[in-house]
Design brief:
alpha+beta, 2 helices
């Protein structure tokens, strides 16, 4: 099966939870952003309650979590920001 390499960026609280601002992932061809989110939920218990992915961007453009990832894509999950 063909594999694709994707650069995953995590911001704010997601960076704190995962312990990384960016990670290179090698994924099966046909993987969607939503699949990457589900994998993060499985790896990090603090994300388990968040079934739906946060705002998603692929190659610096907002995208549906159901968008297929392609080799060389940059995927970012952008959590909601609160503050005053």
């Amino acid at each position: 099966m063909r594999r694709v390499k994707v650069r995953l960026l995590c911001f704010a609280v997601l960076r704190d939870i995962t312990g990384r601002a960016e990670t290179e992932l090698e994924l099966a061809d046909g993987t969607r952003a939503r699949d990457v989110w589900q994998s993060l939920r499985a790896q990090h218990g603090q994300l388990a309650a968040y079934e739906l992915p946060p705002m998603t961007a692929i190659n610096e453009s907002y995208a549906s979590p159901d968008q297929l990832l392609r080799d060389g894509d940059e995927l970012a999950f952008i959590p909601p920001v609160a503050g005053g």
